[in-house]
Amino acid sequence: MASADSTKPSCPVCNQSDQVKTMQAAYNSGVARCAPPDMPTRNVSMMKPITICGVFVGICLFLIITLIGGLENGFPQWAQLILLVITLVLIVTALAVSYWAFQRVVRGDNETIELFPAWDKATARWNSLYYCQRDDVVFDPKTNEQISNSQLVSLRVSATKAIKSEMQAATQH
């Protein structure tokens, strides 16, 4: 039975494999630059517009209950009608804003799902790399080349860059 060390590639700098780790093992041991690629996410907030609409509807409902509810106080009928119309408009507006906010979240989720193949590719590339603890070097065993810190950063944020480039392209159209 072969040991785990015999399956590790040798470092291109020191030509030894005793200090070679997978990128995951290096990251788990505290080497921050060996972090895995960032998973694409899209944070679309829908709470602010929905909360604002909810507050306005709540204020109108409170006014309806307190002003119209006590008809013995002689609240004018035309004012009651205006308050009722404003409340109905705000309720319909709140529903429309809720639908719009939900559609923004769904659109953001769909855009993120489209970026998963780029993230999968970056993760596969990251999984194929190794780290030599002795020489503090990240390398690709297939090509036996060292990977620079800038290449690691670009690999780590590749899906995030795709999000930013898509957003810039969308704003230019």
Q: Which structural class best describes the helix and strand composition?
A: alpha+beta
Termini separation: 60 Å
- Whole-number tally of structural domains: 2
Oligomeric organization of the protein chains: single chain
Overall spatial form: rod-shaped
Question: Helix amount, in percent?
Answer: 55-70%
Instruction: Name the helix and strand elements from N-terminus to C-terminus, one letter apiece.
Output: HEHHHHEEEHH
Strand order of the largest sheet: 1-2-3-4
**Count the strands?**
4
Radius of gyration of CA atoms, rounded to a whole number:
29 Å
Q: How many alpha or pi helices?
A: 7
Instruction: Indicate the mean pLDDT.
Output: 81
Unreliably modeled segments: 1-5
The largest β sheet comes out as: 4 strands, antiparallel
- Which strand-content bin applies to the residues? 5-15%
Transmembrane segments: 49-71, 77-102
Keywords: Membrane, Transmembrane, Transmembrane helix
Topology:
Blueprint: H1 4-7, E1 20-22, H2 23-28, H3 47-68, H4 77-114, H5 116-127, E2 130-132, E3 137-140, E4 145-147, H6 149-156, H7 158-172
Brief synopsis:
The protein has helices spanning 4-7, 23-28, 47-68, 77-114, 116-127, 149-156, 158-172, and strands at residues 20-22, 130-132, 137-140, 145-147. The chain has 173 residues and is an alpha+beta fold.
Structural commentary:
Keywords: Membrane, Transmembrane, Transmembrane helix. The chain crosses the membrane at residues 49-71, 77-102. The protein has a four-stranded antiparallel sheet. Helix content is 61%, strand content 8%. It has helices spanning 4-7, 23-28, 47-68, 77-114, 116-127, 149-156, 158-172; strands spanning 20-22, 130-132, 137-140, 145-147. It is rod-shaped and about 95 Å long.
